UniProtKB/TrEMBL annotation, chain A:
It comes from Nitratireductor thuwali. It holds the Pfam family BPD_transp_1_N. The keyword Nucleotide-binding does not apply. This is Glutathione transport system permease protein GsiC. It is a multi-pass membrane protein. The gene is gsiC_5. The chain crosses the membrane at residues 12-30, 99-122, 134-155, 167-188, 227-253, 273-296. Residues 95-296 form the ABC transmembrane type-1 domain.
Automatic annotation (TrEMBL), chain B:
InterPro entries: Peptide/Ni-bd, SBP_5, SBP_5_dom. It holds the Pfam family SBP_bac_5. It comes from the Bacteria. Its main location: periplasm. Belongs to the bacterial solute-binding protein 5 family. It is found in: Periplasm. Gene3D superfamilies: Dipeptide-binding Protein, Domain 3, Periplasmic binding protein-like II. Residues 1-25 form the signal peptide. This is Heme-binding protein A. PANTHER family: OLIGOPEPTIDE-BINDING PROTEIN APPA, PERIPLASMIC BINDING COMPONENT OF ABC TRANSPORTER. Residues 75-448 form the Solute-binding protein family domain. Keywords: Signal, Transport.
Length: 306, 542
């Protein structure tokens, strides 16, 4: 187990270095000149050159990258070009909000997704099954912006149950979590449905039923724990999907997370922030997968980590 | 002989502004709070660095400069200066400072602070986008290249007197001193916070920063020791950031927001304008903006004047106004109507596709040609570019649209052979200060037609450059009319060469809640966008 985690952590490091390299290359190739942007439209050529030197933008690519990597190893993500603030400070101030939203969204996804999946599987082929699967299809394909605005309009503006955007209390968390969760729930419900149908066909379920064990007990004690296994791996993958969704949802609900920070930085080509957020997102995805892999054997002892 | 141009207590002038009648101003009680929302977080509140329309007016409320404008107008007036003198030849400016002005940290502001602040902006280590504005001060070249510590042209005569010596007469210098980049900062606070000063701003302005939770909110509080008694009117302003404009509008209706800082979202514009509830809460005003299409005179066939004139005549500007719901007026020259020097009686090029075709035929391009139109990729800019594309197609010009991120369009414009045409929407040009010269240097003058420059038409007319320099050497206010006429002439000559097709001048629409009061002009102030924070007041404490 320890060897496995160590190996995975080394892999993670390599993946992050790879991602940092690819992102750095891509941003290096963007034709926008940060020095010119910082210097402004009234700057002289000498001023622009001076700023370029201070930022090290006149150095060859490999030197710039090695400098950045050196900074990373010391925990230095650089300083924002336009906000003149440490990128780590900016990210640290926004990370808790994003993690909270992610936790809320995963809770909603599992609650709705699994319930829908179980109900659909138990009523396979019926009208209920069809309706739920159509709903999950809509959920998967609906644009987050539209769902967000719709929920906001109905529950915050018309009904007044929740605040109209913002951050701070539990009430603020509900609508953005629902928006992200509603969309993800579609995947979970489909996955849960097929997984449960598969498990319900297994011999041990049939045996348990034949032995006269109550249906609910069979379902909760035998079928569900087995059917839920693929879902756990999915949560890890889901963190990656959240990273893209979070940009839109955070914008709609005014949620002060890193998605919003990334969006603002992309618009202004603030390269240190874009690099920083990309690396933090990559970390989240890789760690999400690692945690999912570590939890799986706890649920199913047949799975061994090697 | 030196002439005393202006003296007296400017505080009195504050109340006597044309925007606010004295009686009206004195009746207003101080107190209350206002909530303003923005989509994006505030980038920095360092006056030497902040250069976007969102932080511009916030910085103006936290810091003061030697000069400022009458609220709601483009008229200059002294702020930290009590009086000033300009030498006969227009190269020496001497300012007497107001005494007893305090920074938010309690220390008195002196002439040393003014000198330090301007030298800090010019110092390349500060990386200020405004350094270039101080180019006329003696010693600028050495200081901006990092070869000198300070500016040799700035002298502290005594704690309350500061003198600027210029290398050439500069009629815009007073405007430059009213820019945020010239606002005064205390050295000890800058040194304490280093590069993070923009997150811990300390100035001498009407408000002080009480709280900044990154990505969430900023709270400005009244500065109790503010030198200008009676200001600010409000006790507190809360800036909530990260709010979508559509959501902000819903919250305004709910009474939770007083001013949505990003304005009325385009998708909601007609609905809001037609809603009787909002009728009295929307204020419309001009702004110092022109939207234009540049034609790169270095790229054929735009090196031919007939072609450039044909493009000017081909574009149906009224139709473009409809695309943006009429939030602008048609432009026919580089300067906007609110700018001194605007030629009222100039008609511009008419919308005449047939005439345009004839001009193309005259240039030997009767069969038309293919070209590219660069545009920034956020709504409504690509839609405007499509309208221009259709108009050009009608006269035989096939322009393919290159829709890119803002920084990439700017980068392409700064290369001599990259962008044949650029639609400027979303990128340029809002004046930094209300003077006609501000629409010339970087975007139409020879200095801007360099790699990485902002003169995307690559138009360089040395005669006009000389005329511009001459106009800017007229410092005497008694000759302001002549100077204005010279600038008018320069822009009309530019139109004869037609390196641009001016399209429209944007209008501003500010929406506010019923509980925020103030003269209408304060809500469309040309330099304090979206509102003049120091001057508006809360109705519920009156």
């Amino acid at each position: 187990m320890v060897a496995y985690v160590a190996r995975r952590l080394i892999q993670t490091m390599l993946i992050l270095i790879g991602i940092s390299f690819v992102t750095f290359v891509l941003l290096y190739l963007v034709p926008a000149d940060p020095a010119r942007q910082i210097a402004g439209r009234s700057a002289t050529a000498a001023t622009v050159e001076n700023i370029r030197q201070q930022l090290g933008l006149n150095l060859p690519f490999h030197e710039q990258y090695l400098r950045y990597l050196g900074g990373l190893l010391n925990g230095d993500l650089g300083r924002s070009y336009l906000q003149k603030t440490e990128v780590s400070t900016l990210i640290a101030s926004r990370l808790p909000a994003s993690l909270l939203l992610m936790a809320g969204a995963i809770f909603c996804e599992l609650l709705f997704g699994l319930t829908m999946g179980v109900v659909a599987a138990l009523n396979r082929g019926s009208r209920i099954d069809e309706t739920l699967m159509v709903a999950s299809f809509v959920g998967v394909s609906a644009p987050q912006f539209v769902i967000g605005i719709l929920l906001l309009y109905i529950f915050a503006v018309q009904l007044g149950w929740f605040p109209i955007g913002g951050y701070g209390t539990f009430a603020h968390l509900v609508l953005p979590s629902l928006t992200l969760g509603f969309l993800g729930a579609g995947w979970y419900s489909r996955m849960m449905r097929s997984s449960l149908i598969e498990v319900l066909r297994q011999d041990y379920v049939r045996t348990a039923r034949a032995a006269g064990i109550a249906r609910a007990r069979v379902l909760l004690g035998h079928a569900l724990p087995n059917a839920i296994l693929p879902i756990i791996a999915m949560i890890g993958i889901d963190i990656g999907l959240f990273m893209s969704g979070i940009v839109v949802v955070e914008s709609v609900f005014g949620w002060p997370g890193i998605g919003q920070l990334a969006w603002q930085a992309i618009q202004r080509v603030d390269i240190p922030i874009i690099m920083g957020v990309t690396l933090v997102s990559a970390c989240a995805i890789v760690l999400g997968n690692l945690i999912a892999d570590l939890i799986t054997p706890l649920i199913d002892p047949r799975i061994r980590l090697r | 002989m030196r002439r005393l141009l202006l003296a007296g207590v400017a505080a009195a002038a504050l109340c006597a502004s044309p925007a606010l009648s004295p009686a009206f101003a004195q009746d207003i009680k101080q107190g209350g709070s206002m909530t303003v929302t923005y989509k994006d977080d505030v980038s920095t509140l360092d006056p030497a660095i902040g250069y976007d329309w969102q932080n511009w007016s916030m910085i103006k409320s936290l810091f003061d400069g030697l000069m400022d404008y009458e609220p709601g107008t483009t008229e200059l007036r002294p702020e930290l200066a009590e009086s000033y003198e300009i030498s006969e030849d227009g190269t020496v400016f001497t300012f007497k400072l107001r005494q007893g002005v305090k920074f938010h940290n309690g220390r008195e502001l002196t002439a040393e602070d003014v000198k330090y602040s301007i030298e800090r902006t010019v110092n390349p280590k500060t990386q200020s986008p405004g350094a270039g504005f101080f180019g006329s001060i003696k010693g600028f070249e050495e200081a901006s290249a990092g070869n000198a510590e300070g500016l040799s042209g700035v002298t502290v005569v005594d704690p309350y007197t500061i003198r600027f010596e210029l290398s050439r007469p500069d009629a815009t210098f007073l405007h430059v001193l009213a820019l945020n980049f010239a606002h005064v900062v205390p050295k000890e606070e800058v040194e304490k916070h280093g590069a993070d000063f923009g997150k811990h701003p300390v100035g001498s302005g009407a408000f002080r920063l009480a709280e900044w939770t990154l990505g969430q909110r900023l709270v400005f509080e009244r500065f109790q020791d503010y030198w200008n008694e009676g200001l600010p009117k409000l006790d507190q302003i809360v800036f909530e950031v990260g709010q979508e404009p559509v959501v902000a509008l819903l919250r305004l209706q709910n009474g939770e927001v007083d001013v949505p800082g990003d304005g009325i979202p385009p998708a909601k514009f007609i609905e809001v304008m037609n809603d009787p509830k909002f009728k009295d809460l929307i204020i419309q005003g001009g702004q110092l903006h022109t939207g234009y299409v540049t034609m790169n005179v270095k790229i054929p066939p735009f090196d031919r004047i007939e072609v450039r004139k044909a493009v000017n005549m081909a574009i149906n500007k009224d139709r473009i106004l409809r695309i943006i719901n009429g939030r602008a007026v048609v432009a026919n020259q580089p300067l906007p109507p609110t700018m001194p020097g605007y030629a009222e009686d100039y008609q511009g090029y008419p919308y005449d596709p047939e005439g345009a075709k004839a001009l193309l035929a005259e240039a030997g391009l009767g069969d038309g040609f293919e070209t590219e139109l660069f545009v920034m990729n956020t709504d409504p800019q690509p839609r405007i570019a499509q309208a221009i594309q259709q108009d050009l197609k009608a006269i035989g010009i096939e322009a393919s649209i290159k829709s890119l991120a803002q920084a990439n369009v700017i980068a392409a414009g700064g290369e001599e052979d990259q962008a044949p045409m650029i639609w400027s929407g979303g990128m340029a040009w809002i004046a930094d200060f209300p003077d006609p010269s501000n629409f010339y240097g970087p975007i139409l003058g020879c200095d801007g037609a360099v790699p990485g420059g902002w003169n995307w038409a690559w138009y360089c007319n040395e005669e006009l450059d000389a005329a511009a320099a001459e106009a800017d050497s007229i410092v005497d206010p008694a000759m302001a009319g002549e100077r204005e006429a010279m600038w008018r002439d320069i822009y009309l000559k530019i139109m004869e060469d037609a390196p641009w097709a001016p399209i429209f001048n944007e209008e501003r629409f500010t929406i506010r809640s019923e509980r925020i009061g103030g003269d209408d002009k304060l809500f469309v102030d040309p330099v304090h966008i979206p509102v003049h924070y120091d001057e508006v007041y809360a109705e519920d404490v009156q």
